[in-house]
């Protein structure tokens, strides 16, 4: 992999952090109605939550234009990334995925004995779809596409991706991770979920962790053909890992379209502010379509990470192509102002 990361080798005092910009969390959520629903749900915690799971599945199915047997829930999309990897790679095989990309599913596939065939992103940080299609061979068990991509924040053109998915899914299932999709102004038209409704072997993952502001509450889902869902749920259970509070919260959150619209708006304002501030210092930022952005820094990555945390600002530092990069999540406007001021001080 060309992607590496400097992890903090010092204790992190979360309560002392003045800007927590390291984990692509939504600083505004959950919505007030969601908090209320969760508080009320606590009292029914003696019961298993299968009924709530079915309610949420029905709501998601309606939103996505499919029947409920196309939906599988998990405690966060991580659970589903891992379950797909566990069930697909138990007998080895290879996974085709971009480099750099989000490593969760790829790492689990490799742990199961699978081989990763990395395909570098194009010069404008899109997935190199022709190269990914050419990489398919008789051992390929899955293609993973993260769109928009993490940690680059970049996007792959929806029309190109649709064409690719329609064609390549004839040969192997395609997992499209849409964790950040809802930060786009035209999310519905950029989603690959329509291909699932057409019967294509595409698995679309979504999460309540980002635009819904529920990262700590752990709810995510995949949309795939009933046969593909069945191939997973025949081996591992779906709703047994979910808790009624989070499910009731997610059910309430499905109705919070105004809240999500506000989050989307604040996110793009903060992105604009941060991009301008950092670009005016001479840095080259990859255009972001997500709730974070990444840019190469001049300072030593490990020292930069330590200095930012010492000032109470949490960020991530990646090593891509032997260069050190700062990835910063969008917090509130005042957190972004702190980030910019701290960045200036640390790199001065
Ligand atoms: N997919 C991508 C691309 C992510 O960036 C993340 C989290 O940052 C996840 C999936 C997992 O999120 P969760 O397990 O909270 O749904």
CATH architecture term of the largest domain: 3-Layer(aba) Sandwich
Level of helix content?
A: 25-40%
Order of H and E elements: EEHHEHEHEHEHEHHEEHHHEHEEEH
Output mean pLDDT. Answer: 97
Number of strands: 13
Large-scale geometry: globular
In whole angstroms, the N-to-C terminal distance is 31 Å
InterPro entries: Aminotransferase_I/II_large, HistidinolP_aminotransfase, PyrdxlP-dep_Trfase, PyrdxlP-dep_Trfase_major, PyrdxlP-dep_Trfase_small, TAT_signal
Family: Belongs to the class-II pyridoxal-phosphate-dependent aminotransferase family. Histidinol-phosphate aminotransferase subfamily.
Protein name: Histidinol-phosphate aminotransferase
Keywords: Aminotransferase, Pyridoxal phosphate, Signal, Transferase
Brief overview, please?
The chain has helices at 32-41, 50-64, 77-88, 104-111, 129-134, 158-168, 187-190, 193-197, 226-233, 244-253, 257-279, 301-310, 333-347, and strands at residues 3-6, 19-20, 71-74, 94-99, 115-120, 140-146, 174-177, 202-207, 220-223, 292-296, 313-314, 316-320, 323-329. With 348 residues, it is of the alpha/beta class.
What would you say this structure looks like, in words?
By secondary structure, the protein is of the alpha/beta class. The chain folds into 2 domains: 116 residues, Aspartate Aminotransferase, domain 1, CATH 3.90.1150.10; 222 residues, Type I PLP-dependent aspartate aminotransferase-like (Major domain) (Aspartate Aminotransferase, domain 2). 39% of the residues lie in helices and 18% in strands. It contains 13 helices and 13 strands. The strands form 3 sheets. It has a 7-stranded mixed sheet with strand order 3-9-8-7-6-4-5, sandwiched between helices. Strand 6, helix 6 and strand 7 form a beta-alpha-beta unit. Helix 1 packs antiparallel against helix 10 and helix 3 packs parallel to helix 4. It is globular, with a radius of gyration of 20 Å. The two termini are 31 Å apart. Bound molecules: pyridoxal-5'-phosphate. Pyridoxal-5'-phosphate (PLP) binds next to helix 3. Pyridoxal-5'-phosphate binds next to helix 3. InterPro entries: Aminotransferase_I/II_large, HistidinolP_aminotransfase, PyrdxlP-dep_Trfase, PyrdxlP-dep_Trfase_major, PyrdxlP-dep_Trfase_small, TAT_signal. Belongs to the class-II pyridoxal-phosphate-dependent aminotransferase family. Histidinol-phosphate aminotransferase subfamily. Keywords: Aminotransferase, Pyridoxal phosphate, Signal, Transferase.
